[in-house]
């Protein structure tokens, strides 16, 4: 048992039945309605209409006022859960991963097992010891610019230029056109150019993820999963130069690594990056001067600090992994008592990211937050890694990519590709949101699926980088 409390034998405070119902309905239910593994657009719209994301944060603020520092716990469906309510406790949980706080919770194992049962995130500590470093090596997790950055940039340029051709034709940009171009780009970056039009592989993954939303309530589709994983292996065997599949093929893997089962997490997680990028486009276009600032730095690509900070702001304001879950492998002691082994410890990211009691910038676009952190933090990147959750993480628990030893190893690949996409989009086009944002107090929810822009070629175009090679054509607006 680690840490000490004034009375380490006393349990952490337990919620009353009424508070338990409010926490379950107010904080956990919206994530179930939206879909944890694949978003249901209707669920996302419903949660936005009900203002449920804002209410979730208020509910946890109320619990923290009532119970003071330290976590609170409650039981649900035979499981014991605890919310951490202090940034220092969130940091502790992330720093002490995977032991005593394992990322491989029962719920995650059931949900992700539908398509990647041997993935690092849901592995035992012994299996994880081989799988997590493999992810770090292939994704070059501590480097802001992956060694395949130029191949990634080519995929971005070609797919975004094809998308802009479609935008010029129809005069607007909607989610369907954006996501079609996005997935062509992702398949090229992860699997190779040959996979650009392989919609079957991402459709198979989508169907498996739909099962994942039901976790252990839905049986595994073993044949579909087998077909999907064989297709992933096919691209690894092909090892197309410039793709992540090629890095997988040449990276030494110790026994038990299961390289092909690490790749689905990357494809799956690029979905979240699409929502974050589309919302970031909205942040850029809705804030005076932001597009000009993005255009001004375009000549320095792939280093795009302001656009990168905008993507991080999109993830702070609307975290794509709202529930960061850990399962205690042993009893743990906190400032206000003890938690049993097997308790699921919940870090609810929006509570920390939108805590207007601690930060006056909670509900406004604040890219300087990340730019300042980057200036201060010479050792890691602006998420405070790899040196632990420094600066931002420590005092505020801004955890869009989680933190500590379980931090997202793809964060730098995501920030690189997302910022290249945004920079390319705004370089020569003016976008205007069909549904303007209230920028003085940004909403708690923002559905990317209903976000839509009118668009036209800009008269004030700056620095549109030349496309380096010609590649596969085709309009992203057509499937
Ligand atoms: C906006 C996009 C993304 C966000 C916000 C994000 C966030 C996260 C978070 C919060 C976790 C921790 C999950 C947990 O502890 O349960 C995680 C894990 C992970 N992410 Fe990402 N991610 C993104 C995209 C990506 C991409 C594109 C890749 C790969 C190219 C990637 C690779 C991974 C891997 C392999 C893990 C598991 C790490 C482990 O086993 O410890 N992520 N990500």
UniProtKB/TrEMBL annotation:
Belongs to the cytochrome P450 family. Residues 456-479 are annotated as: Disordered. This is Cytochrome P450. InterPro entries: Cyt_P450 (IPR001128), Cyt_P450_sf (IPR036396), Cytochrome_P450_monoxygenase (IPR050121). It comes from Pseudoclavibacter endophyticus. GO terms for molecular function: heme binding; iron ion binding; monooxygenase activity; oxidoreductase activity, acting on paired donors, with incorporation or reduction of molecular oxygen.
